[in-house]
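User: Structure with NAP, tokens only please.
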Amino acid sequence: MVKKKQALGWIEWLIGWMYVTYELLFQRTKTSHLQNPLELPSLNDLTCIVTGTTSGIGKEIARQLAEAGAHVVMAVRNRKTANELIDQWCSSWAGILLNVEVMELDLLSLDSVVGFANTWNARLEPLHVLINNAGIFSIGETQKFSKDGFEEHLQVNHLAPALLSVLLLPSLTKGSTSRIINVNSVMHYVGFVDTEDMNTVSGKRKYSSLLGYTNSKLAQVMFSSVLHKRLPVESGVNVMCVSPGIVHTNVARDLPRIVQAAYHLIPYFLFSPQEGSRSALFAATDPQIPEYCESLKTDEWPVCAFISQGCHPTNPSKEAQSVETSFEVWEKTLEMIGLPSDAVERLIEGKEVRCRYGTRKD
Ligand SMILES: NC(=O)c1ccc[n+]([C@@H]2O[C@H](COP(=O)([O-])OP(=O)(O)OC[C@H]3O[C@@H](n4cnc5c(N)ncnc54)[C@H](OP(=O)(O)O)[C@@H]3O)[C@@H](O)[C@H]2O)c1
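Assistant:
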């Protein structure tokens, strides 16, 4: 019997860190061809849900989409901050009303995800773009679990966006050709998913926030690849992951002081949130993206589209290209988020799907 892989080999690990270092050192030169901000076409006919828009990359994505005319739904856990941002954006546009609304979504609660999706789907409106941007990297913190019992990085960065993407399929098919965009990270290159211990509770591997973050980002690429393949071309829904680059945002707020100081010393290398928003905005609006994604559905190529910080299609890590592990991640994820194995097919056919979450009365 072939022994199951238990971790990245040290050469793979070294190569992974080389990718991360290369991204940090050369992201600015590699993106010198891009405008900042990215020029967007008029988006008056587009409805976009963006998660985590109260700071960093998500705030920039939401603002720029709205300023280009899109109807933007800010899916956030802090409604007050989101409403204040809308006021700021509108006043900087000399009182012109932007088409932005705020809806509550806490990714640390799968009940909240189901509630959000049900509320949105009940409108029976088309959804053209879902951007799963919200994420956490609680650097240096001890292992924490959500009230659903999942390691917090796994839940916020992978499980909750996966549940949201699947449950919003009825609206995304109404909006086809539509796009699910996951703001991923080059850090997935140093991730490894142990499908028998996705929650990192067995004690086989010592937990660290780096392990939690990188594994959650790799799991997201793997799940997205299977989701993309399972959505028939006729559904008109495409799934992709993007790397924003290495960006100076609130993600650094939990860093030790000394690392925060180092962050300030290397401003040349780090992207601003506006620069970091370009790959997601490109994925959301470039007219050639649907055709490219559809070509990947019919290809033998095992992964969904992965768009680099320079707005080019690129390859995710070798580990992300493992078909066997990706299917295991798919199955385990559906189990964890309380969906049946045929959830996607049923939703595409317009049938109902029962989720274990979302039934609790608080
Ligand atoms: N910065 C980088 O260098 C970098 C590199 C690669 C990938 N990324 C990815 O880019 C994405 C955006 O990160 P960022 O750098 O812009 O970080 P950020 O400034 O910390 O923004 C994160 C956003 O996610 C929201 N969020 C966190 N937990 C949430 C929850 N439980 N429910 C709902 N929303 C939640 C935050 O809301 P609150 O304001 O309520 O906390 C905030 O709006 C993340 O997925 C991150 O992994 C970032």
